[in-house]
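Late entry, written up from scratch paper. The run itself happened at the end of the previous shift, but nothing got recorded in the book at the time, so transcribing now.
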Amino acid sequence: MLGRRKALIIGIVLVATSLALSACGGAAKAKQAGTGTTQTTSTGPDLSPAGVQKCLAAAGYEVVASGNLPVIQGSKAIGVRLPGGGKVMPGNLSAAVFWYATAAKAQSMQKSVQFRFKAELRVDKIAAVFDPAPSGDTQTKFLHCMSGY
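Output as recorded:
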């Protein structure tokens, strides 16, 4: 009798734990019928270089994702050309957006270039530099694309 009660308690704890864990996190999982595989779909914003590039293009900016682009502290940027030209080199860009492995590395990059560019933005692991400094509206659009909100 004690063994069954113990097994029942362990079962209840396991079910409660799995329910609690399934309620947490930023991804939804769906079991595909008949295959036994699980498909995970992200519910958060796409902050990959391709996702930010797509967001900036949708905001009406000319995005440069290939060719001779700036590299700072080992990260190659995607570039943006704004009306009026730019001085971010190479490429005569108005802005460059970089991705780093950690927020600390992005912050380090931002500090290292603070006197080289007219403006910098950083959201977590993503940093952007500008020359010339963009309008407040442009900065807001960049922040939206870099944060997903």
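Confidence is low (pLDDT under 50) at residues 10-38.
(Scratch paper discarded after transcription.)
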